[in-house]
Design goal:
Structural class: mainly alpha
Pfam family, one: Utp11
Distance between the termini: 98 Å
Family: Belongs to the UTP11 family.
Largest sheet: 2 strands, antiparallel
Protein name: Probable U3 small nucleolar RNA-associated protein 11
Number of helices: 8
Radius of gyration: 40 Å
GO cellular component, one term: small-subunit processome
Oligomer: single chain
Strand content: 5-15%
Strand order of the largest sheet: 1-2
Helix content: 40-55%
Number of strands: 4
Main location: nucleus
Length: about 250
């Protein structure tokens, strides 16, 4: 127990406790209170001592002194940046790494292509967005036949199934067998959403497979550029394709 608390206890007074600074305001610095003058003074003197030590160190520094950071550092926008040493790699090692990169990307592309084929076999591209709509042309001899034409009668099915491009049984089949599959509108809507999600996944995989093919081509181009053969750039590199170079023909024995 401190002396202040013992004195307050003897006099019968209630000891006074100072309220601590809220944690949310600690970032604003010390409280501007009379009781904090010593803390603020100590903080100020600590900073001043640090500044004086840095000034003394700068004055005592020998301008002719050499240290290795002088040749490994440079000043960029007022900030000293230390240059990182470059890795020493031979051209043969670089070619080997490029080859391994190409093999890895090609392996991932082939795996993606197999998944695409499996999805296509499951979906059969039914009602896919962006797919060219199927066209069924009917020929007639007279205008009267065109005016009296009924597509449901011509296809021998019920009008409710005319808009279907798949699973469209005839009336004779419906009389013999029950309609297979979902017929509830809510269930049909749910199946349509699931089918749409599958098509979206298929589209993403196709785009990923194309991107991997482009990456493999760009890596192969960079690998070919390691050869010390005279070459001329014909076309710049784009997001959809690698740069095209024309190499000088050399006859090899």
């Amino acid at each position: 127990m401190s002396a202040a608390f013992r004195k307050a206890a003897k006099s019968g007074q209630r000891p006074h406790r100072e309220r601590a600074q809220p944690a949310s305001r600690k970032k604003l610095g010390l409280l501007e209170k009379k009781k904090d003058y010593r803390l603020r003074a100590d903080d100020y003197h600590k900073k001043q001592n640090a500044l004086r030590a840095l000034q003394k160190k700068a004055l005592d520094k020998n301008p002719d002194e050499f240290y290795f950071k002088m040749i490994r550092a440079e000043l960029q926008d007022g900030v000293h940046i230390i240059k990182q040493p470059k890795d020493e790699v031979t051209p043969e090692q670089v070619k080997l790494m490029r080859t391994q990169d190409i093999k890895y990307v090609e392996m991932k592309r082939v795996a993606e292509a197999k998944k695409i084929e499996r999805l296509k076999s499951e979906l059969h591209l039914l009602d896919a967005e962006g797919k060219n709509p199927n066209k069924h042309t009917f020929f007639f001899d007279t205008k009267k036949e065109v005016q009296e034409f009924d597509i449901a009668t011509h296809l021998d099915t019920v009008p409710e199934l005319v808009d279907r491009v798949y699973n469209r049984p005839t009336i004779a089949t419906l009389q013999k067998e029950t309609l297979k599959g979902a017929t509830d509108p809510a269930h049909l809507k749910k199946l349509a959403q699931q089918r749409k999600n599958q098509y979206d996944l298929l589209k993403q995989r196709i785009e990923r497979e194309k991107a991997m093919f482009v990456i493999a081509q760009k890596i192969q181009t960079r690998k070919d550029l390691l050869d010390k053969t005279h070459k001329v750039k014909v076309k710049k590199e784009t997001t959809n394709g690698p740069a095209i170079y024309k190499f000088k023909f050399q006859r090899k024995r």
